[in-house]
Write a structure and sequence with these properties.
The structure holds three protein chains of three kinds. Chain A has 21 helices and two strands. Chain A is an all-alpha fold. Among the domains of chain A are: 91 residues; 82 residues, Serine Threonine Protein Phosphatase 5, Tetratricopeptide repeat (Alpha Horseshoe). By secondary structure, chain B is an alpha+beta fold. Chain B has one domain: Alpha-Beta Plaits. Chain B has two helices and six strands; from the N terminus they run βαββββαβ. The chains are: A mainly alpha, B alpha+beta, C alpha+beta. Chain A: Belongs to the sigma-70 factor family. ECF subfamily. Chain A: This is RNA polymerase sigma factor.
Amino acid sequence: MDETDAAAAEPRRTRAAASDRLLATVIREESARIVAALTRWLGSLDLAEESAAEAIEEAVRQWRTRGVPPNPGAWLTQAARHNALDRLRREKRYREKLTLLADPAEIEPLTGTGEVDERLPLLFGCCHPAISPDAQLALTLRAICGLTTPQIARATLTPESTVAQRIVRAKRKIGAAGIPLRIPEGSERAARLDIVLTVVSVMYSEAHLVAGGDAGADRDLADDALWLARVVALELPREAEAQGLLALLLFHRAREGARAVDGELVLLADQDRSRWDRRMIAEAQVVLEKAAMLRRPGRWQLHAAIAACHSDTRDGGDTDWLQVLTLYDMLLAYDRSPIVRLNRTVALAEVDGPQAALNEVDALRPALTGYHLWHAVRARMLRLLGRRDEAMAADLRALELTANDAERRLLEARVQC
Amino acid sequence: MKYVIMFTTTPELDTEVSPEHAEQAYGRTYDWFGTNSEVMTAAGAQLQPVTTATTVSHGGDGPVVADGPFSEAKEVIGGFQVIDVPDLGAAIAIVKTWPLLDLPGVSVEIRPIIEY
Amino acid sequence: MSQYAILIYEDPAYYETLPPEGWGAVVEAHNEFTKGVVEHGGSITGGEALKPVTTALTIKVGKVTDGPFVESKEVLLGYYTVEARDLDHAIELAKLAPATGGGVELRPLHDPSSPL
């Protein structure tokens, strides 16, 4: 391509990109409602989701050039319903089912009115423990956020065929095994909500990897995750942990502008605080305070509280590490995962010194030896202790294990200086 | 004597069989139940594919729910049937005629049941 | 309502070393389960307790071999079929099932009347 071609192609690409963002906003708002309404009508999530996905693809194709219609929800519902009927007529095994269907007009009033939000029961179904964690994420991205299979594949660095297979298996399992689409009550609620929140958090961190490094994702999963965290927090205002996760993601999102500068990662301590989104930090603080008033502590609120400590700093030097460490110690009561213990060592080094932290890091070796950040944290402790050669070796090992370009450049810079 | 016969398959070998061959073999299982109807008791269960399985195991912090079958074996149970026959020899003779046995990875286990 | 099979996998060593007076507790545990299912709004539609795996025979392509179809620490020692509202209800019932030192697998039963 010569320069003239490139210049000619530029405006079109910019316009498409802006429109993609708008399309993403519209689609994530409508997708789950349509899938839920169609599932209720058809009695099959598999068929409903397939028909909705087809309608979304068609919509994206049309709206990109002609613009979004005044009532996109109605347009999508209509198209999805049409697709479903088409499929029912085409496939012999469904024909009997066709005569049993209620008048499609009956599903109309429920979509888009906001009176009955069926998205959450659908979300709890997608995040059922009888579905494997990978498939929970893939199905949530498709049915709830309305992503296409290729988008999910790119965003999660997974082959398309694997993503497609996970989604099909999960949908069939919901139908065949009788997984109910509802928000569990009573003692089940907390454990099931935690799975939902975990899926949303993984969605956010996977997005981080893509956004921080290799280009190619045409949709920012972090936006989807933040949107979904907001939906859950708004629909379940009495669930403190749902508020906790929303606060956590807001704190992180607020720092995004300082974390990735021109495609390069900047460590928290070195981030330019003036690039932080103060309005978003203020919102996160309000949400976290609201969660605290519910007096049901949990791991997401503690994660958010730790993020809040960092957000209070004017520069990397005035972090209240004792408070951070105390919060980590409380967090261990809920979450003793090796990653949490590794993150705690950073605070431990500041409070009890690098040797105490290194001992703890080394204790985590069996669990985290394949994880690049374990080697990076270890390198940091060794450097603080003046063991430069060992630190260099650990950084090089971290570099070998890093798949993400931006993280690799950050480590490379450290090895070189 | 009552025995449970357990029909097992190896899903990863399913693709080695042509759909026509499989359909034909499965078609003959209906005849098999008909031919041996006098030893069949009312007890039995035809399970949905193993992809629909959910496991509840007992962890340190209480029951844990997860996707997938309990056993990691390649062979999976597809169904049970309780038969009432004079002795083990009769059970073996009937099971040997199970039409799916000529498909790869298919086996049938015979276990006496505990009668109270 | 849908039907599910609850497959009970346990370590047979537990029963091999169980003194005779211990069996009363085992029977009691299963009676408790039967009562529990009803109290939790389900019902039991069938089930069998299997004799130890040492009594198992496996038939594969016409060949009879000694032992179960799969060798592992925990083995299938029995099953129930239950009627439940949905998978969550079935899980609630499965959590009540006695499965000492093992776990249970839940499998929906084949329902030929459902087209989707």
